[in-house]
Specification:
The chain is built from seven helices and twelve strands.
Length: about 250
């Protein structure tokens, strides 16, 4: 399913978005909150996920308590520069420059800024969009699906345009998606999103995921594909990898 407006586009660059830093209470793990930005060779821009909600800038402690996020961990870094607009500004863009958004899944650290991008179509997996409300966090559902949003619902593995394929990898959530990005110099990059938060999960298992066996199946499918395509893998929340990644304004080309 090629998106018509991108039919003559090819992926040129992949930027890693830095949406803040978080520490998990139970194990002390410090994880990056990540999104992606894709630039095409004809000047189009695709935003993947939008981080935490803007209310966290106003009162981080109150918002964490309200969402029960403070029961899980602590936000260590989150400022205006870690919001989509702040990240885009690092390369001279604004939200109005975005042509398409992709939502990998509907958890709290991926969906927070969707209200600021309703002017462009959203690509979302059909199983995720079928939820009455976005999942958000631990039984809290403060977000509705934006009514003024143009949705492009996909299922299965789908090539959106040359160089960008969405992979259906449910398990973490019903409609979790990962990305396969074919870059002109770097080669193939697989962005796992939360299909695989960190590589150790492949041995430890996927406790706490929506469907653990399904999560394991698709995680191993991704790694087999990575081996087959000799791909560089960007994991969802890997403490060891996060400091080593190129982050916007740097990019993978």
């Amino acid at each position: 399913m090629l998106i018509e407006s991108f039919r003559n586009s090819k992926v040129a660059k992949l930027y890693v978005m830095d949406y803040g830093l978080f520490q998990v209470h139970s194990n002390g793990r410090i994880i990056g909150i990540t999104g992606s930005l894709i630039e095409t060779d004809d000047g189009k821009w695709v935003l993947v996920d939008t981080g935490f909600a803007p209310k966290y800038l106003v009162d981080r402690e109150k918002s964490s308590h309200e969402d029960k996020l403070d029961e899980f961990g602590t936000i260590l870094e989150l400022g205006p520069e870690n919001m989509p607009a702040g990240q885009l500004a690092r390369i001279g863009l604004t939200p109005d420059d975005i042509d398409l958004q992709i939502l990998t899944h509907t958890h709290i650290d991926h969906i927070g800024g969707i209200e600021n991008f309703t002017h462009v179509p959203m690509v979302v997996n059909r199983a995720e969009r079928a939820l009455d409300k976005p999942l958000y966090w631990h039984g809290r559902h403060p977000f509705d699906w934006p009514e003024d949003q143009d949705y492009i619902e996909v299922e299965g593995d789908v090539e959106l345009f040359p160089g960008l394929t969405l992979l259906e990898t449910p398990g973490h959530t019903p409609g979790q998606m990962s990305l396969l990005v074919d870059l002109p110099e770097t080669g193939v990059v697989i962005v796992t999103s939360d299909t695989i938060s960190r590589p150790e999960e492949l041995e430890e298992g996927f406790a706490g995921y929506w469907r653990e066996e399904l999560a394991e199946k698709h995680a191993h499918r991704l790694m087999a594909l990575a081996q087959e395509r000799d791909a560089f893998v960007i994991f969802g929340h890997c403490p060891k990898q996060w400091p080593t990644l190129k982050k916007i304004p740097e990019y993978y080309g």
